[in-house]
Write a structure and sequence with these properties.
Tetrahydropterin Synthase, Chain A; single chain; 279 residues; 56% helix
């Protein structure tokens, strides 16, 4: 009884489909769950997993646009999208997809230079995926993504690439050094310019302050001379200037009509000169 029931009912696992044929002709697709079939008339011809599957694309030689031979491999991620096409569209659709992936990869590598194959890996993945997706649709497959796994070059090419990279690093270092030196010179010149400007501004401000002080002093003396003790103030101011002039003669050999070592005589001489100028 149990065997008889099993011949009528077909349990299908999750994420799996079965293709049913009647007398060798496609009848329907069995979805996950419990399905029925006519014993001895219908049979399960194909069974497909709807899960994502990864397939290794083994290393192969390819020639870049600048005629460099490289070895490149990758990983192809595909999924059964149409079970009927996958069953009847090709004899071994997944194997064909892997062979096609190798062919498309070689074709795309031939469009790029060696440097571009390393710099534009994401772009290459996208181009290979686009070339595969259109072709495998007829086989009921869907290419989810393609990843280039490794790119290998010969030992001579690797040494040349290392030398080129070292030369590029040296050039960048020299450029940075020259730019830093140039910036340093610019900063130094700017600092000197600002220093001169500040000194000039300080000198101008000092001249203004001295001029203001001189004007205020003259005004004070003029005001004092108009007062009752103005003559005494003028005499004192002129005598003070006379003494300041004598102080500046210290350490110098100058012929004067006074004994500079005798303060009383110097002051008396200064006051006499002041009186002579006021008369």
């Amino acid at each position: 009884m149990g065997a008889a029931l099993r011949s009528f009912f077909v349990p299908v696992p999750h994420q799996t489909v079965c293709v049913l044929q009647r007398f060798g002709k496609y009848t329907r697709t069995l979805t996950p769950g419990l399905n029925w079939k006519i014993p001895f008339v219908e049979e399960i011809a194909y069974e497909h997993s709807l899960k994502e599957q990864a397939f290794m694309i083994y290393a192969q030689n390819a020639v870049t646009k600048d005629n460099v031979i490289i070895q490149i491999d990758g990983v192809l991620y595909i999924q059964v999208d149409d079970p009927v096409k996958c069953s009847y569209g090709a004899q071994k659709p997944i194997d064909y997809a892997q062979i096609l992936a190798q062919s498309v990869m070689r074709a795309e590598i031939g469009k790029l230079t060696l440097d571009q194959t390393f710099e534009e890996r994401e772009k290459m993945n996208a181009l290979i995926l686009a070339g595969l997706s259109e072709a495998v649709q007829e086989w009921g497959l869907k290419c989810l993504r393609y990843e280039i796994k490794d790119i290998k070059v010969t030992e001579n090419i690797r040494k040349a690439m290392n030398m080129e990279a070292e030369a590029e690093r040296t050039k960048r270092t020299e450029i940075l050094h020259s730019e830093a030196k140039q910036q340093s010179q610019i900063n130094l010149a700017e600092g000197q310019r600002l220093s001169k400007i500040l000194k000039a501004e300080g000198l101008a401000e000092s001249i203004v302050i001295r001029s203001t002080a001189t004007v205020q002093r003259i005004e004070a003396i003029s005001s004092a001379m108009n007062s009752e003790e103005g003559d005494l103030a003028a005499r004192f101011n002129l005598a003070e200037e006379y003494l300041d002039a004598f102080k500046k003669l210290e350490g110098k050999q100058v012929l004067v009509n006074s004994d500079v070592n005798n303060p009383k005589e110097v002051i008396k001489k200064a006051l006499d000169m002041v009186d002579a100028r006021l008369k």
